[in-house]
Amino acid sequence: MDPSRLPGFLLRRGVKAAVVILAIVVCNFLLIHAAPGDPASVIAGQSGAADERFLAQLRQQFGLDQPLHVQLWIYLKGVLTLDLGFSHRQQMPVWTLIRERLPATLLLTGAAFAFAVAAGVTLGTLAARRVGTWADSIITVIALTFYATPLFWVGLMLVLFFSVWLEWLPSFGMATVGVELHGIDAVLDVAKHLLLPALTLGLFYLAVYARLTRATMLEVADQDFVKTARAKGVPEGQVVRRHILRNALLPVITFAGIQAGQLIGGSILVETVFAWPGIGRLAFDALLARDYAVLLGVFFCTSVMVVGFNLVTDLLYAVVDPRVEVEG
Amino acid sequence: MAVSRRGFMAAAASAPVLMTVQEAMAQGVAPRRGGTLQMMLTPEPPVLQIGVNQQGPTLAAAPKIFQGLLTFSPTLEPQPVLAKSWTISPDGKEYVFTLQENVKWHDGQPFTADDVVFSIMKFHMELSPRARAIFSLIETCEAKDPLTVRIVLKQAFQPFLLMFDATAAAIVAKHLFDGQDYRTAPAVQRLVGTGPFKLTEWQRGNFVRMDRNETYWKPGQPYLDTIIYRIIPDSQSRRLALESGQVLLSQSSDIEPFDIPQLRQRPNLEVETKGWEYFSPLSWIELNHRVKPLDDARVRRAMSMAIDRNFIVNRLWFGVGKPATGPVASTTRFFDANAKIAAFNVQQANALLDQAGYPRNAQGVRFTLKHIPLPYGEIWTRLSEYLRQAMRNVGIALELESTDAGSWARRVGNWEYETTINFVYQFGDPTLGVERTYVSTNIQKVTFTNTGGYANPQVDALFQQARAAAAAADRARAFSEVQRILVEDVPQIWLMELSFPTVYDKKVRNVITTGLGVSKSFDDVFIAG
Predict the structure, then answer these.
(1) DSSP 8-state secondary structure symbol assigned to residue B119
(2) CA-to-CA distance for B282 and B492, rounded, in angstroms?
(3) Option in A38, A87, A275 nearest B233 (CB)
(4) Partner-chain contact A47 B133, CB within 8 Å
(5) Chain A: closest CA distance from residue B261 (Å)
(6) Contact B246 A48 (CB under 8 A)
(7) With contacts defined as CB-CB under 8 Å, which chain A residues touch B207?
């Protein structure tokens, strides 16, 4: 890639990204308001008693008494100044709510992501190297099993095995509450809580990476330049690493880019089963409560991440494979 | 002359403490100080400032922090909390409360009669629809001295005292709210009450932590050091947490009824279904009377007769709860056991529908009704599936439409439904919790009013009579009569007197001692060693 073209590329992509994100915000806003019910009626439905004045007070406080286009305009103005609004239901700024959940979310999805990529690519490479042997069959069957099994079921089974039966690991939460832990003890405590949810979430992606790596490696291994490398006497390990794996990585990077974009979206299912205090649950609860501002805030952060990682992925292509030209 | 309860109440004031000790002694255990009680809170409430939020989870957790003037026994007798005694004038219009001495807010300020007056006349009057309806009957509410509150009503209102539990009208600190927007005041996030526990940490989506209030006004209490509510969204994970001892207590709908039989078999767990006498939630099929043929009383009666309520209680709820017999729950005041809905009888139900002129067509269907299951968990879907079967037996096709809580509230509130399921708290007295569903003056486009649109002038008149009468005997007569009319008219098809199991480790003591179950202060709860 010619480095002198980078600024122009980034500028063009930046403008495109801004337009895409703006369109996403408007679409999200309209879609959410199209769902029946509003935060005021949800609160009335949960309060056991209500009257007209109660509903009117809530709607006025939430700004729902304004026409829709005015609400949209107010929201857009906020987003443009990086103000994600205020959750009247929880009496807190949306950004505070999201920020509180960010560390837990990134820890879980990041751990699952790292585990899935590392283990998936390794297993896929192993399977491709030993294609047709029992090792390949075992890896393929395992990958297929995790790919086809629902996440929440895997989670519950892991809990039954490790928490209920063996009593090795806690079944829910992110840390032991009510006990003062410091230093290494606190880290170990979180690690113990993290293991099962990260494994549950990671296993599915592990399967995807393993299958993807195996398939593309087999495809690349048949190509002429690999034969040439072998013919000129390059050691087998180097052939696999430099010639096959590097060329097989492009689809893996594409997929990793997509998954990385979802990192802060969290995972509703895993967070639910393991009572993990992440952003997925925040969004889900906000949806049920029609807490529009929170839901839009989560959507906004997620879409920024997706757009951002798409850009990073495109740049990475050029690094891994110099033949790829970056284009706006 | 005013009827004085001072002598009686002076003895009763120390009763909760004594009862605790006696009860504990009977079990051979003296209250033990210390320990952390881990529980669960489902779903996580948005704010815990009672009044600003009145959802079930808030009403369960916030009474640890905030207190009312009174609380109520399982038979709904008033018991002293922040009011140590009270008198009621013979005409039922004047109430004088004498407050506990030496009570301090969590921020160290003294608690006085001014806080009580502010809470009643301003805070709850502004925020709470339920309190507003009752407190608007107050003519004057004044602090006679720092420890005496005098309230004069415009007219006698016999169920008035029921409004003074913490869940109905918690007393809040005037100095933190007066002159501000109560919903957005800083105190909503930094809770300050008079209760035995202070809110010390709330990690959203994770846990709520409360620690002992060292300056609590009951000497030696609370016994617990810390209460922690864990937020666990999945019902099976909650059951696992309880079974593995990671939490010691589950409340309200933490545990699905179909998990109860297995939990009953665990030797270390106690399954308690008492403690819902004050709320007495009654469930019913909510009918929209604007939809034909639901305006026909014969049709409603036939539908009611087609339902086997014992099946619902025993097979769906596994014995937690009781079959409903009418519009008033048996634990609510003025329940009349003689006014009963017609018994389960499919044959008679079919005959009644034939008579009413709704013959079966070639497919055996008389008419079709849409039905929205209550979106509050698996058990309610199972109930609606049973009802579909039961209605099919009498030739009524029930079409189930799934929805979520937001849409449900909106559609019921806007009368955009044919049939659904609802359950409503009775708050101890028919005037407070029953009347609102049946009087035509309360037909409103808001949930928990008379959304069905039932109108019967006789019913209106009787509820009004019972509301206005000062004497319990007069009220009882009116309520009995109205119950007899309603069980014939079946404006809503009552199903069950709900109860929610409280499941706890047997070493946790004094859990359910009042008619409010887990919605109490927990100042007497302790963990036996």
Answers:
(1) I
(2) 11
(3) A275
(4) no
(5) 19
(6) no
(7) 173, 177
The beta-carbon neighbor of B188 closest among A46, A91, A281 is A91
Q: Distance, in angstroms, between A273 CA and closest chain B CA? A: 6
- Cβ burial of B364 (10 Å; 0-12, 13-18, 19+) is exposed
To the nearest whole angstrom, how far is the Cα of A146 from the nearest Cα of chain B? 21
CATH architecture of the domain with range A99-320: Orthogonal Bundle (1.10)
Whole-number Å distance between alpha carbons of B263 and B36: 22
Answer whether B226 sits within 8 Å of A178, measured CB to CB: yes
Domain coordinates of chain A in residue numbers? 5-94, 99-320
Q: What are phi and psi of A85, to 5 degrees?
A: 95, -170
Test mutation, B197, B204, B248, chain A, max A CBs within 10 A? B204
Q: Which helix (H) or strand (E) holds B22?
A: helix B15-26
The 8-class DSSP code of residue A317 comes to H
Going along chain A, which residue ranges are E strands? 86-87, 92-93
Alpha-carbon distance of B462 to B430, in angstroms, equals 12
Task: Inspect the interface and report whether the beta carbons of B54 and A51 lie closer than 8 Å.
Answer: no
- Among B403, B337, B354, B336, smallest CA distance to B375 is for B403
What string of pLDDT tens digits covers the 529 residues of chain B? 344 444 334 434 434 444 444 454 445 578 999 999 999 998 899 899 998 888 889 999 999 999 999 999 999 999 999 999 999 999 999 999 999 999 999 999 999 999 999 999 999 999 988 899 899 999 999 999 999 999 999 999 999 999 999 999 999 999 999 999 998 899 998 999 999 999 999 999 999 999 999 999 999 999 999 999 999 998 888 998 998 888 999 999 899 999 999 999 999 999 999 999 999 999 999 999 999 999 999 999 999 999 999 999 999 999 999 999 999 999 999 999 999 999 999 999 999 999 999 999 999 999 999 999 999 888 999 999 999 999 999 999 999 999 888 889 889 989 999 999 999 999 999 999 999 999 999 999 888 999 999 999 999 999 999 999 989 999 999 999 999 999 999 999 999 999 999 999 999 999 999 999 999 999 999 999 7
How many angstroms separate the CA atoms of B337 and B373, rounded?
29
For residues B529 and B231, is the Cβ–Cβ distance under 8 A?
no
In the Cβ-directed half-sphere of B5, how many Cα atoms lie within 13 Å? 18
To the nearest whole Å, the CA of A291 is away from the closest chain B CA by 10
Residues of B with CB below 8 A from A267's CB?
none
> Which positions in chain B touch A278 (Cβ < 8 Å)?
205
- Measured CA to CA, the distance from residue A215 to residue B77 in angstroms comes to 75
Residue A17's φ and ψ, nearest 5 degrees, are -60, -45
In this structure, are strands B70-72 and B78-80 parallel, antiparallel, or unpaired?
antiparallel
Q: From the CA of B357, how many Å to the nearest CA of chain A?
A: 36
Return phi, psi of residue B524, to 5°: -105, 0
| Count of pairs with CB atoms under 8 A, one residue in A, one in B | 174
Rounded distance between C-alpha atoms, residue A151 and residue B517, angstroms:
37
Backbone angles phi, psi at B197, to 5 degrees: -130, 145
Query: CB A177 to CB B230 under 8 A?
Result: yes
Sequence-distant (6+) residues with CB within 8 A of B292 are none
Full-model pTM: 0.87
Alpha-carbon distance B442 to B461, whole Å? 13
